[in-house]
Amino acid sequence: MIIYGSSVSPFVRKVIAFATEKGFEFKVRSENPGSPDPEFRAASPFGKIPGLRDGDYTLADSSAIVAYLEALKPEPALIPAEPRARGKTIWWDEFADTMLMGAGNKIFFNRIVLPKFRGQPGDLAAADKAEREELPPLLDYLEKSLPASGWFVGDRLTLADLAVATSFANLRYAGCPLQAAQHPKLSAFVDKMYARRSFARSLEKEAKLFPG
Ligand SMILES: N[C@@H](CCC(=O)N[C@@H](CS)C(=O)NCC(=O)O)C(=O)O
């Protein structure tokens, strides 16, 4: 199985963590967003990362990919079957992909991707505005919603936890680290998630690009 992309993308990092937690054997093939490589484009027709190849089967989009992996190997279950738990798990994945990463990507793209990887100036005012106005209510919502179990759905790890956790590395790289004094439960949750092998291996590799 091949995952195309780079774990610097929160969507790719989520898929790598999910596939690792499920116990899949896979390789990560480095591709930048928009790469014209035909093999990558067969998996991701519009050039977004991640893409997936499993033999002659290809798929794009992190949420589609994790749904495929879950169906392929139901245990350990990371997308619960019980209706209410499943609904909430998909909600957290969607919240993380659209709202949290939506705000996070405005910050990460303008402060890091454009200047550091593309040699272009980022829209720093847009990044500052997202940090000031969009991010705080999302973090407060996560802090308030995290159950005493320490897991977003039920009393064990699910896709919800992987999807929520993945963005915080990008926020840190872009100068918005979580503050334990303001969001103590969320900070402890992210520390716990990033200590898992499924995230730790990606984060170790990324540390070469983002030291300190
Ligand atoms: N909904 C997609 C989003 C993937 C996505 O937007 N990836 C970014 C990198 S973080 C990308 O490839 N951007 C390039 C583009 O939008 O053209 C998913 O969950 O995989």
Describe this structure in words.
This protein has 2 domains: 2-72, Glutaredoxin (3-Layer(aba) Sandwich), CATH 3.40.30.10; 83-206, Up-down Bundle (Glutathione S-transferase Yfyf (Class Pi), Chain A, domain 2), CATH 1.20.1050. It is globular, with a radius of gyration of 17 Å. α1 packs antiparallel against α6 (159-173), α4 runs antiparallel to α5 and α6 packs across α7 (184-195). It starts with a strand and ends in a 6-residue tail after the last helix. The chain has helices at 10-22, 38-43, 62-72, 83-117, 124-145, 159-173, 184-195, 197-206; strands at residues 2-4, 27-29, 51-54, 57-60. The longest helix has 35 residues, at 83-117. It is an alpha+beta fold and 212 residues long. Strands 2-1-3-4 form a 4-stranded mixed beta sheet. Residues 9, 11, 33-34, 47-50, 61-63, 97 line the site of glutathione.
Jot down its keywords.
Glutathione S-transferase Yfyf (Class Pi), Chain A, domain 2; 212 residues; binds glutathione; alpha+beta; Glutaredoxin; 2 domains; globular; single chain
Major sheet characteristics = 4 strands, mixed
Helix content: 55-70%
What oligomeric state do these chains adopt? single chain
Report the CATH topology name of the largest domain.
Glutathione S-transferase Yfyf (Class Pi), Chain A, domain 2
Strand content: 5-15%
Q: Quick one: how many beta strands?
A: 4
Entry summary:
The chain has 212 residues and is an alpha+beta fold. The chain contains 8 helices and 4 strands. It has helices at residues 10-22, 38-43, 62-72, 83-117, 124-145, 159-173, 184-195, 197-206, and strands spanning 2-4, 27-29, 51-54, 57-60.
